[in-house]
Amino acid sequence: MFDTSENTMWNSKKEEAEEISVNELRTMLLTLRRSRTATFGFIYVITIIAIAILSPVISPFDPYVQNLSKRLEPPSFPHVLGLDEFGRDVFSRLINGATISLLVGLEVVLLALLIGVVVGTVSGYYGGKVDMIFMRIADVFLAFPSLVLAIGIMAVVGPSIFNVVLSLAVVTWPHYARVIRSQTITLKKMDFITAAIAMGASKKRILITHIIPNTVPPVIVLATLGMGSAILAEAGLSFLGLGVTPPTPSWGSMIASGRDYILQAPHVVIAPGLMITITVLAFNLLGDGLRDALDPRLRG
Amino acid sequence: MRLLNKDNVLLEVKNLKTYIETSAGLVKAVDDVSFNIKKGEIVGLVGESGCGKTMVALSIMRLLPEPHAKIIDGNIYFNGLDILKLSEDEMRSIRGNKISIVFQDPLTALNPIMTVGEQIVEAILSHQQLDKKEAWRRAIQLLRIVGIADGNVIVNQYPFRLSGGMRQRVMIAIALACNPVLLIADEPTTNLDVSIQAQILELIYNIRNTSGTSVLLITHNLGLVAWLCDKVYVMYAGKIVEEGPCENIFVNPSHPYTKLLLRSIPDVSFVREKLETIEGEVPNLIKVPKGCRFNPRCPHVRDCCKKVEPDLIEVSANHYARCLMWDSTFNVEWR
């Protein structure tokens, strides 16, 4: 019924429509670059991930080789950050520890986010009894001091990296679920959702294409903050001897073992401490930038 | 009671009652409303804000905010099919496919983080088996149909970059995505500039003429209805108070409410000291006035109006009004 003749003009533009996702990514990065702090966060995160991946190649010394005659030696030429209580190279251990700290951070956030998105959207969208049950469960988790709960879980399942991830995800998902639920409730009353229903969209489609993408901006900030606190929590658990088992290096366990010598050899503790601080900060800055970049309205 | 050519009737609403439960009481938003739309017809549903027009539209689409709002009674036949008896899945295959709706506010009716193209494509793919490329091509075509010439640029834009008129065009493009047989336009021009309003209405008119889509145009502006509609229903406080062919309503308004509505249209060709308004406001639909619902605001009110609720009475051929002055048992004069 409508004219279909003017197709030639469209043909030249056909590729354009297909390249949307590529364009999208470019616009996002451009927006990200406009903010100096976000650029710093972005570059730092990329660098630290590269270092973590390349750690076996680039670390100058073996992080496990001990040299007890040189224990607690302060920074000097071949050992730029000095040696720890067993005479191991702190710089090498720092580089190798990045792998574990980052992996734990990423995995905890992804796992918690997965649970949080499912529980939050279902709970917010369907409401009623489902909502009641899910939210009371979340409340139980929130009512507990999270690190204490994580310690409790670790005590039961035993120390291992996988268990660290699991226990931290279990204690953090309610935060995501709560935020996503409240977003969902606000969103489902909006006109464009009604309009989508009026267009014959199914509930599943509305959740996946309209609601979940619209919860991304606030959640991305929470996720990067969560990344920081997961790295911190891993450090805390390792510090208590519940995280990674020695001699595997992680930033947390390095602080834990170095704390006894904090007055004689502060470099052992300061180096991983600074890394944790800067990394957490960088993730937060990146998160702020990402939120702006992901929301087309804030791109300007 | 009325003669209908059954074959030609696309949508028939019969004795529809839609009530809303509120903490203050039961709101009788739609109270025994009947009307029909024939194939290819543009039908106007006119009335002030708060008289139940949108609830009629939402009832037809079965989009009422349940459980507070409910259809208590009545039937809605679409192509002879009783819509109210369909399952949610069956209803979904009609929504957007056979019946589409354009909402009042194009600002909020588009997903802010999806491009215009993605939203049109989504609408197309939800009812049609097309591959993605084909759907994108169709999206650009639809934009051209609704008067956006550079559709290939606009498809990649986000809604917030477009003007109100453009957004409403996009909404109409989405509504047309699957060639609906009935388009419900719920105050499609209320939030637009006057010059854009005319363009949008012309667009709706052209769509009807080229594709034979029936249109239910919901508006509070009788002026809009004048040149666009074939048939007009005037609604007041949940009831139809006057119905008939467009010309009849304009030449010979037979309910005091219609008459006042017509007089309250701004008209530059006609110098008046003051624009006329209708005194008072739409009554609270929880406690509707006894007798004729319009009696507290009617300039011609008589004692009987406060006691007897009038029926729709035939004034001339196919032209009905709900006013006692047409009832021969009462001697009411208001002209």
Quick recap of the structure?
The complex is a heterodimer of chains A (300) and B (335). Chain A has helices spanning 8-18, 20-34, 36-58, 90-126, 128-143, 146-157, 161-188, 191-198, 203-239, 251-258, 267-294, 296-299.
Amount of beta strand of chain B: 15-25%
Q: Tell me the span between the first and last alpha carbons of chain B.
A: 28 Å
Rg of chain B, alpha carbons: 21 Å
Residues in helices of chain A, as a percent range: over 70%
Radius of gyration of chain A: 24 Å
SSE string of chain A: HHHHHHHHHHHH
Strand order of the biggest β-sheet of chain B: 6-7-8-3-9-10-12-11
Average residue pLDDT of chain B: 85
What percentage of amino acids of chain A are in beta strands? under 5%
Poorly predicted ranges of chain B: 1-5
Number of strands of chain B: 12
| Spatial shape of chain A | globular
Task: Report on this structure.
The complex is a heterodimer of chains A (300) and B (335). Chain A is mainly α. Helices cover 76% and strands 0% of the residues of chain A. Chain A has helices spanning 8-18, 20-34, 36-58, 90-126, 128-143, 146-157, 161-188, 191-198, 203-239, 251-258, 267-294, 296-299. In chain A, helix 4 runs parallel beside helix 7 (161-188) and helix 10 (251-258) packs antiparallel against helix 11 (267-294). Chain B contains 10 helices and 12 strands. Chain B has an 8-stranded mixed sheet, sandwiched between helices. A 4-stranded antiparallel sheet of chain B has the order 2-1-4-5, with helices on one face. In chain B, helix 3 (116-125) packs parallel to helix 6 (164-176) and helix 4 (132-145) packs across helix 6. Chain B is globular and about 70 Å long. Classes of the chains: A mainly alpha (300), B alpha/beta (335).
